[in-house]
Write a structure and sequence with these properties.
single chain, alpha/beta, Rossmann fold, 2 domains, 7-stranded mixed β-sheet, 4-stranded antiparallel β-sheet, 7 helices, about 35% strand, globular
Length: about 260
Amino acid sequence: MAENTYSGYGSISGIYDKINSEIDYPSWADFIETCFDKYLTEKPSLLLDLACGTGSMTLELARRGYDMIGVDGSEDMLSVAYDRKFDEELSNILYLCQDMRAFELYGTVGAVTCCLDSINYLSGDGDLQKCLFCVHNYLDPDGLFIFDVNTPYKFENIYADNSYIHEDEVDGRATLCAWQNEYDKGTKLCSFYLSVFEEDGDGRYTRTDEVQTERCFDRAELTAALESAGFEVIGFFGDYEFTQAADNNTRWYIVARAKK
């Protein structure tokens, strides 16, 4: 099995879903299922949710009857995903802790999803290509790869060198997540310096720090990488309504077909 080499998300795994509470997973899953209807001759039964995190999309698709494999490189995030799976008593999910650049499955799948800018975390030289070749290898012929990325507009105007604070409550205890961004236009790398404060229950707080990095990809880079890995690019979209992607979108949704 491929070795897990990613230790990120340890600090925020417990509050990740709170930070991303605005994400409309049912509408996103509707978009994915519409892609199946538009671009496949028949609906797939087995799906891979790559970099599945705490399993929000994995769970949403499992509820709709798909057999799911969730792969993520963070044991902390998968621990949350496991708990959610058992809480809902879903038996059609298999979680695997593996690196998204070198994962191994037991066979091919009909489609692969990869949500919430996980592709942008492929920040090392050659990482994107390694991931795409691996995805292509485990897709059925003409299977779909559906993913999203944060756009150059978002890196340059929303992330930039800005700082943000998120306050919330988890399991009745106050939490605060503060992060400082640092975007380098030359390298196209954005570093996120995160500090998480979690209430211990006795008036004290525990602080954990973490650094994450995302790489900015433009449309030309993504298209070239996909085609080099054996994909046909079906489209870049700016929303769940299949509106053509624009330069001022903050997120692009990309659909590609594995040619074999």
